[in-house]
Design brief:
It is built from 12 helices and 2 strands. It is mainly α. A two-stranded antiparallel sheet has the order 1-2.
Length: 316
Amino acid sequence: MKQRVLTGIALFAFMILLFFTRTLTPYIFDVFVVYIAVVGGLEISDLFAKFNFYNSKIAVIIYPFLSYTLFKLSVYFQLELYLLIVFQVLLVILISLFVAILSLLTKKRSDNEIKTRKINCTVKQFALFKSVQTMLAIFYPAFLICLLFFINNLDSLNYIFTNVGSDAKTLLMFLLIYTFIVPVFVDTFAMLTGSLFKGKKLCVKLSPNKTISGAIGGLVWGIISAIALFFIFNSIESYRLIFVTINLTWWKVLIAGILSSVLCQIGDLFESFIKRKAQVKDSGDFLPGHGGLLDRIDSHIANILVTFVFMLIILI
């Protein structure tokens, strides 16, 4: 317990420092995004392999670097938003295709891997399986985490989001804080409410400790945290003017808060499902007392997607 608390305090201090550096330069936060995408990717790659979802760990590792490079090049050439998104998706597909081609070209190595893993298939089938499974390992979590590039570099996208203009640098701080704060409230109060009221289990097969009361508590407090963030930022004149400009109202944040609270808990259950399939308690040992990185950010990964879509809706 002591180790868990100390790690939690260290993480909290680190996040405060990280958000402080964001006010000075976006690059440190970008490096942070690449780092957690790589670590999360390694953890999911190992988990997949434990239940015979064989994938290319190298492909999973290099994806965040290529994703960031592609994003920066796309912004440099001021490509349209749909192209930025399409190219990111195509990158995942191309890397997966490369894995398939490489498996076919290195037939002897693939044969050895098939025999070692005792898989009943041909080299062509193995290449296809490995390609698809690599694609899945890249999509969750690296692809979703890398959506943070769009949020963190919103000020570089003002040629697309002309309605927010130079205020994008201010708005993105609200979006980033929303991304990281809401899941904390959902997870914390789901645990506290579930421990206090107990009651019927939510999904025993996936996570035996989660209760329906906990899920409701997480939902309610996730919504409260989203609305509270809106009103806190809305009390600051610079943010209030931005919110008026983009017509961001409390009820829009309410809808986002509901979606965040629901998807955060689905994200948590999804990671529990993967760990159950892999027959492990934790996704890794990256964080002392907490387990793997995915054990701590599974809810955040889901909320990144919500914030990304929310950002597009309010700015387009």
